[in-house]
Amino acid sequence: MSDLSGRTTIVVGASRGLGRGIATAFAEAGAPVVAVARTAAALAELATTTTTTVGTIQPEVADAGDATVAADLLDRYEPEVVILVAGAGPHMRPLHQQTWETFSVNWHTDVRIAFHWLREALLAPLRPGTRVVVVSSGAAINRNGSPLSGGYAGAKATQRFITGYARDESRRAGLDITVTAVMPTMTPYGDVGRRGIRAYAGRSGQSDEEYLKELGDLLTPEIAGSALVDLVRADPATTAPEYLLTAAGLQNLP
Ligand SMILES: NC(=O)c1ccc[n+]([C@@H]2O[C@H](COP(=O)([O-])OP(=O)(O)OC[C@H]3O[C@@H](n4cnc5c(N)ncnc54)[C@H](OP(=O)(O)O)[C@@H]3O)[C@@H](O)[C@H]2O)c1
Predict the structure, then answer these.
(1) Nearest CA to ligand 1 atom 34
(2) Is residue 209 part of a domain?
(3) Which of 26, 53, 60, 94 is the most buried (most CB within 10 A)?
């Protein structure tokens, strides 16, 4: 996988934020990228503004949580790399100000997408050597979760768990599909992080700028893109099953 040219890469959740940076980095590394999201205009803009002479970006407007979309796109494109970044913006409120519907929004988007796509990757099955990366969150391994974002931390922890389940099923069936979980730290360069920063800054009586300063160096979509390209290019025998993703790139879990 050290050469990505000709390696079809599906990025689910590519229209903005971290996913956009990841899709762009894979195209720049020479991959034919299939960029999946629901917003046609944003995908079209991504495809026309990504000026690379090597890879390409093919927009696919779809709801990745729809039960038939994963099977359809995996069947149609036969990707060698699948990256699941899509997720919903959590409703930022303390627990007692959530409703069940707002509390569970990330279960119905993030977990649902990971469930359908991992399941279809194993059922198809994708060809041996395929790499699947699931973008969970640092909140999944935070001892206190994420108290202002309802079910977000639990949903991202479940994404991490089912990524492990899929890794194990691939190994048991001898499929040679490498499944990796990546857990980014909070960053304002995506809508999910912007919501969190606003809410936690407000709770601690700080401005967004003051709160951001305390976060230190920030993860950007470009750093996320280059870290995932390096991950997929590496020999799977040398990679860990899961990583934190920070401004310094992929880090082994503590
Ligand atoms: N930003 C952070 O600080 C941070 C930290 C840790 C983890 N994460 C995780 O990283 C991922 C990206 O975060 P972000 O902040 O970059 O988010 P973002 O800016 O809100 O982007 C989310 C992307 O997912 C797509 N998407 C959402 N629902 C979809 C669906 N049903 N079908 C297809 N595409 C869908 C969106 O496109 P459409 O709306 O056009 O469909 C968009 O491209 C999320 O899983 C998030 O939980 C983010």
Answers:
(1) 37
(2) no
(3) 26
Tell me if 207 is assigned to some domain.
Answer: no
CA 18 to chain centre: 7
217 CA to centre of ligand 1 in angstroms: 21
Whether 197 maps to a domain, the answer reads no
CATH code of residue 155? 3.40.50.720
Would 131 be classed as within a structural domain? Answer: yes
- The domain of 78 spans 9-186+220-252
Give the CA radius of gyration of the chain.
17
Q: What is the C-alpha to C-alpha distance for residues 138 and 146, in angstroms, rounded to an integer? A: 10
DSSP 186: P
Q: Mind listing the pLDDT tens digit for each residue in 37-46?
A: 999 999 999 9
For ligand 1, atom 45, which residue shows the shortest CA distance? 87
For 139, list phi and psi in degrees, rounded to 5: -60, -25
* pLDDT of 1 strictly over 80: no
Q: Which pLDDT band holds residue 55 (cuts at 50, 70, 90)?
A: confident
E strands, 96-136, are 131-135
pLDDT per residue as tens digits for the range 70-126 = 999 999 999 999 999 999 999 999 999 999 999 999 999 999 999 999 999 999 999
What's the domain count of the chain?
1
